[in-house]
Structure formats: structure tokens, C-alpha cells
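Sequence in, structure out. Go.
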Amino acid sequence: MNQIRVTKEFRFEAAHALMGYDGPCKNVHGHSYELSVTVIGPPVTDRSSVKLGMVMDFGDLKRIIKKHIVDPFDHALLLNEDMPAQELQRLGEPFTNVLFLPYQPTSENFLVDFAKRIGDLLPPGIKLHSLRLRETANSYAEWFASDN
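Output:
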């Protein structure tokens, strides 16, 4: 069976602050995130299918990622829900789109979250292969299914 990987890239803007961090990232700051989503599976061989030759329609993948990751995270302030209430109020007060997360809002933890959100939404026979989240021009984190 031929297994092919296909990748779709996404961009979103978000701000975050790291609870308890000992550097400048404890303050609210933003990133232009770039997310690469790679899925793996066999190309459709059914000649009667409109998806003939495709592993997965890029448009279908786009709809999943947009709905479950880009739309909720884009232009949001991302904060750890365990941050002390006083700090949450101070940081979140001027913002109208605050997403409280059950984890420290790092690129590494975003990828764990994103993998969980995406995994069960893919068509039968298609698996999430990897994710790459670029936080800056020279810094990114990666998640691979084979490592988990």
C-alpha cells in the first residue's frame, strides 16, 4: 500500500504570557504563528470517487484546522487558567478575546493540544503524521505521531 504524506500550512496571530516564567515571556507578548499539519494515508484509488488520487482534500483539511485551531486561537490572548486570579485580571483586563487553557501556553503544549483536537476528526484511513508550530522566524516546535 502506498502511504503518502500531505501538508497544509496555516497562520494565526496570538498573544500569550507564561505563568511563573523567569524571563520576559512572563509579560503579554504576541507571535505570528505558522502551523504545518501533515497527514498520512493512501491515495484514493476508487475511480468513481471525486477524490481519486488524493490522500485527503486540502479543502477538507483546511476546514478542520480552521474550525478547531485557527478560529479559536487567532487574535486571542492565551493564558494558563491556573494563573493566580489577581494576575489573570491584571493581564486579561484590556482584552476581549481571552482563551484560558488548562496548560502553560507554550508552543510545545499547543502542539499536544492541537494533536488531540485534530486526531479524531480526520477521515477513515487518514492519520495525523506531524505538526510543526513556528513561533518566530528561527524557533519552532514539532510533534510526530511516531514519538507518541
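Check: The radius of gyration is 18 Å. The domain at 4-147 is CATH 3.30.479.10 (Tetrahydropterin Synthase; Chain A).
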